[in-house]
């Protein structure tokens, strides 16, 4: 195989990992939220809010770090609203989550009005000199932007958190049976609020990646349903972080491939090709997660249920 | 032991009655001479430097919306005593122990630990003091392992590997063997309780609270538990023991405090009182023993006929039914005894129609083959069904009592006409159940989950009985139900039989079966022994059968039947 073809493959993989970042970040955040027993359907809304906050902060201050921070704060603010409503005022989680998404879409469009058409300098890829010049693996392993590495690290940390850490065990316990956790003395609502806020921060970052790195500009509704895919990824990955990352890569990969296929002018309706990533991700994840006992062990049993400490 | 009991009495009476004038205790010390005597003894106790009581509750008061759960409750627990807390369902026992364990906070009142006033704001604080609690509804997490569950419930932080070793060690030492690596959803009820107890033992408790620990245990498991508790007591641990099983309390406890509707109505030494006297103290009126209104049984035609039924279990760790034959005739109650988990759940599923049999003729109801029919069709043939699991199977927890009445009664009570629900009839039906079976609730609109176990059970059994079933199948009818309600339920079942219905009762409680059943069989490893007349059978014999010794018990029958 020629060096050029290998390089092309490497570029394709690089593009795939980039496309996967927002999905993976949002899915990981939602995974933690759901493990604590809370179903937050507001992922799309939190991502959009994060995207517009990141863009606005970067344009105003010129610093991408501030942009990322602003995105996390915006996502957490939305999550706090959701957490307060569902955990303390005991509203229905599904309805509140849907409302949060709709609210996020409107809010981000309103805030973003003044920023349409502007651009920011995209985030630079990591450069390790000679290492990044190695054919094939240079770009793939040593030449990505920092967020790609962050996503990988976060996946590992979350896996470790749930598999090894005592705090992770407590979060799992709260998601499994909030009443039992309350009875032996854990502050169920605070733990859940923490998980919800973490989810919000991750979704904010996922949005920031879209508006600062992936397509460095602000467009209304630019998440294009990725929040919903992230939600589906969590379930199909049976609440396991590495599987969620795998699902995100798969989705990202097929998105990129179908773009290339469309570019080559294959005689298939473009709508069919655009459907492919969604279809393929769901099919593959359904196939690899058919073991129902494993699902039962991983799924948080109390998900979506209102918890009241007195009764 | 006698001395400890006596002193506890003295300190309770003089402290509470003198200082606070608690109405419940002043009663006991009304006699002038006796009171003087008590005070003198109390002084002597003081000079002898007796250790202070382990725990003292003073005028603990707790209100919930619509319910005054504890009314100025005072209670004293001495080191190394097993103290029973008695009362009907809803008397406020669970609330009181939750306050001691820090799950709930008292509205007013004082808690003294080793003589020092303490504030117990959370279970972690309670555990730090040395208070452990085994909950009535287990506080375990199904998808986690034994080790993980225990790690969550103790204050000490240690690596899970070390903890697992300690769990195996401690559980072995107290005769409660546990495999630390297993997932809780794989464990039997008895094993789950071992997890809870081991969790407490790992923290060297000085007060152990047990909320109805034996309601889910087999007699053998209960005996093992008592051994463990007596050992703990001998090591100086105080045990606060809540149970409805009065015989058990008489065997185990040296002191008892009785609650009724949130009030302390008295205390006594349970060993010096009969179970009947204790029950009457709890309910405040004469306890009625269930008895049949007609003498002699009048057996009629077979209403339920099971022939050579073999059926694999639907549960991954269930028990397969093997070649079960059984008949229940009109005008008789047939009891099925057995240690839980020997196929009773599977038999219930097969009889109710939840698990259909491949062999259509294996089960007959009223002479019709029903093996492949579902629950609805079997009900149409006159079957009524009271499942073991009240919340979730017997009733929908979040629906009102009226809606729950509708769900099983809509056909036979004609609550629906032309596809429309007649709410007038539904409400009347629900009210009829509540009244006829003395269900204590604030009305038919109450959610099923808001009722205490005994009251919900009365409602469910009432709902089935008012539909006048020709055959009633009833699993664990008085599981976790207090003595008064249990007697009512037994009476209702006897009345139903006397009216000519066939009744099948599956129960772990041998006393219950010997009280109401006409014929008894025993389940073991998915097999069913032959039916024998209850009057000609002894508890020992049934005990043998429960251990799976079908042959030796059959020999007995041969010897005596000849």
If you had to describe this structure to a student in words, what would you say it looks like?
The complex is a heterodimer of chains A (311) and B (562). Chain A has 311 residues and is mainly alpha-helical. Chain A has one domain: ABC transporter involved in vitamin B12 uptake, BtuC (Orthogonal Bundle). Chain A has 14 helices and no strands. Chain A has helices at 3-35, 43-61, 64-88, 93-112, 130-133, 137-142, 146-163, 166-176, 178-183, 188-214, 226-236, 241-263, 270-288, 292-298. In chain A, helix 8 (166-176) crosses helix 10 (188-214) and helix 11 runs parallel beside helix 13. Chain B is α/β, with parallel strands linked by helices. Chain B folds into 3 domains: 55-130 and 205-283, Rossmann fold; 290-382 and 469-562, P-loop containing nucleotide triphosphate hydrolases (Rossmann fold, 3-Layer(aba) Sandwich); 392-464, no CATH class. Helix content of chain B is 38%, strand content 21%. In chain B, strand 1 (55-64) and strand 2 form a beta hairpin. In chain B, helix 15 packs across helix 16 (453-465) and helix 16 (453-465) packs parallel to helix 17 (483-498). The radius of gyration of chain B is 25 Å and the shape is globular. Mean pLDDT of chain B is 81; it is low at 1-33, 43-47 and 552-562. Classes of the chains: A mainly alpha (311), B alpha/beta (562). Chain A binds chain B through residues 166, 169-170, 172-173, 176-177, 179-186, 293, 296-298, 301, 310, and chain B through 64, 102-104, 122-124, 126-127, 135, 138-144, 148, 151-153, 157, 183, 185, 316. Chain A: One of its GO terms (cellular component) is plasma membrane. Chain A: Keywords: Cell membrane, Membrane, Sugar transport, Transmembrane, Transmembrane helix, Transport. Chain A: Its main location: membrane. Chain A: It comes from Novispirillum itersonii. Chain A: This is Simple sugar transport system permease protein.
């Amino acid at each position: 195989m020629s060096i050029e073809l290998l390089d092309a493959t490497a570029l394709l993989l690089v593009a795939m990992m980039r496309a996967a970042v927002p999905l993976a970040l949002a899915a990981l955040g939602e995974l933690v939220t759901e493990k604590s027993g809370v179903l937050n359907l507001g992922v799309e809304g939190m991502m959009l809010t994060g995207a517009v906050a990141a863009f606005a902060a970067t344009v105003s201050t010129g610093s991408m770090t501030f942009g990322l921070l602003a995105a996390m704060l915006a996502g957490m603010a939305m999550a706090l609203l959701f957490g307060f409503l569902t955990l303390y005022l005991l509203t229905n989680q599904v309805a509140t989550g849907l409302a949060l998404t709709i609210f996020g879409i409107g809010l981000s469009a309103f805030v973003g009005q003044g920023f349409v058409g502007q651009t920011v300098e995209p985030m630079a890829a990591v450069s390790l000199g000679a290492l990044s010049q190695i054919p094939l693996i240079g770009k793939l392993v040593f030449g990505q932007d920092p967020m790609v590495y962050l996503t990988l690290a976060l996946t590992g940390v979350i896996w470790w958190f749930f598999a090894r850490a005592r705090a992770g065990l407590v979060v799992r316990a709260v998601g499994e049976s909030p009443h039992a956790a309350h009875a032996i003395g854990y502050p169920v609502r605070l733990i859940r609020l923490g998980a919800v806020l973490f989810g919000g921060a991750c979704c904010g970052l996922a949005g920031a990646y879209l508006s600062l790195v992936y397509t460095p500009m602000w467009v209304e509704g630019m998440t294009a349903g990725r929040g919903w895919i992230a939600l589906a990824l969590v379930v199909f990955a049976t609440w396991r972080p590495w599987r969620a990352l795998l699902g995100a890569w798969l989705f990202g990969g097929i998105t990129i491939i179908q773009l290339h296929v469309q570019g080559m002018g294959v005689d298939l309706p473009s709508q069919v090709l655009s459907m492919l990533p969604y279809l393929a991700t769901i099919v593959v994840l359904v196939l690899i997660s058919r073991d129902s006992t494993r699902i039962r062990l991983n799924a948080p049993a109390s998900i979506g249920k209102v918890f009241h400490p007195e009764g | 032991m006698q001395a400890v009991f006596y002193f506890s009495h003295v300190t309770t009476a003089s402290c509470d009655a003198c200082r606070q004038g608690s109405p419940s205790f002043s009663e006991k010390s009304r006699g002038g001479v006796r009171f003087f005597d008590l005070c003198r003894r109390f002084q002597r106790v003081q000079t002898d430097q007796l250790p202070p009581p382990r725990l003292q509750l003073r005028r603990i008061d707790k209100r919930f919306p619509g319910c005054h759960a504890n009314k100025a409750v005072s209670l004293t627990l001495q080191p190394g005593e097993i103290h029973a807390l008695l009362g009907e369902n809803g008397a406020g026992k669970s609330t009181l122990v939750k306050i001691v364990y820090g799950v709930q906070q008292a509205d007013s009142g004082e808690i003294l630990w080793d003589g020092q006033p303490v504030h117990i704001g959370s279970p972690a604080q309670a555990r730090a003091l040395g208070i452990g609690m085994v909950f009535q509804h287990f506080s375990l997490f199904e998808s986690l392992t034994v080790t993980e569950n225990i790690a969550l419930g103790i204050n000490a932080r240690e690596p899970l590997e070390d903890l697992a070793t300690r769990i195996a060690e401690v559980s072995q030492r107290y005769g409660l063997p546990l495999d630390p690596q297993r997932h809780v959803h794989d464990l039997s009820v008895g094993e789950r309780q071992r997890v809870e107890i081991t969790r407490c033992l790992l923290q060297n408790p000085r007060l152990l609270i047990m909320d109805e620990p034996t309601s889910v245990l087999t007699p053998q498991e209960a005996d093992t538990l008592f051994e463990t508790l007596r050992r703990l007591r001998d090591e100086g641990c105080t045990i606060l023991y809540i149970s409805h099983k009065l015989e058990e309390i008489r065997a185990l406890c040296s002191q008892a405090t009785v609650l009724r509707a949130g009030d302390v109505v008295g205390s006594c030494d349970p060993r010096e009182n009969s179970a009947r006297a204790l029950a009457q103290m709890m309910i405040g009126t004469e306890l009625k023993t269930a008895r049949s209104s007609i003498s002699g049984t009048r057996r009629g035609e077979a209403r339920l006929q099971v022939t050579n039924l073999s059926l694999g279990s639907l549960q991954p760790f269930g028990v397969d039914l093997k070649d079960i034959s059984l008949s229940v005739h009109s005008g008789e109650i047939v009891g099925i005894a057995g240690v839980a988990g020997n196929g009773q759940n599977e038999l219930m599923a097969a009889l109710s129609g939840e698990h259909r049999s491949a062999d259509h003729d294996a089960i007959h109801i009223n002479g019709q083959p029903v093996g492949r029919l579902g629950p609805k069709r079997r009900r149409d043939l006159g079957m009524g069904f009271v499942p073991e699991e009240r919340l979730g199977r017997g009733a929908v927890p979040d629906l009102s009592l009226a809606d729950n009445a509708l769900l099983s009664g809509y056909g036979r009570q004609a609550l629906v006409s032309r596809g429309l629900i007649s709410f007038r009839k539904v409400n009347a039906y629900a009210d009829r159940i509540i009244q006829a079976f003395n269900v204590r609730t604030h009305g038919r609109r109450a959610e099923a989950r808001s009722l205490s176990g005994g009251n919900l059970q009365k409602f469910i059994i009432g709902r089935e009985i008012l539909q006048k079933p020709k055959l009633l199948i009833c699993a664990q009818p008085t599981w976790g139900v207090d003595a008064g309600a249990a007697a009512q339920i037994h009476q209702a079942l006897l009345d139903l039989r006397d009216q000519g219905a066939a009744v099948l009762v599956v129960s772990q409680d041998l006393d219950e079966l010997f009280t109401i059943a006409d014929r008894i069989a025993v389940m073991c490893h998915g097999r069913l022994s032959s039916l024998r007349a209850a009057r000609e059978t002894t508890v020992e014999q049934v005990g043998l059968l429960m251990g799976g010794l079908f042959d030796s018990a059959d020999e007995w029958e041969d010897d005596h039947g000849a």
